[in-house]
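From the pipeline queue, job 12 of 40. The input is one protein chain; the requested action is below.

Action: predict structure.
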Amino acid sequence: MHELSLCRSIAVVVGEHAAGRPVERVRVRIGAFRQVVPETLVYCWGLLNDGSALAGSILDIEHVPAVVECPDCGARSELSVPVLRCGACGSREATLVSGEEFLVASLDLTEA
């Protein structure tokens, strides 16, 4: 369950940027190729932060699909399986455009 260690990393980033202010919501963007189970990540967030300064904060997850761009035909395709191949022409020269993201996108803070 690597989701717990991911939550620890998110909490460190949030703590640094919140600078002691109460946190209501944390939004993260996670790409399809990151192999994260969103429900498990949210569950671990609650466990990890119980009794901490982040207790009660909500973890919102934005799923970012894996998308490739084909240099041969110029098409952009969303992948349904983890194979880098153009969905339009089948070229294996397609380049991954999105799907590897893992970042804290925003925080909702309250005034102390």
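Job complete. Helices lie at 3-18, 38-49.
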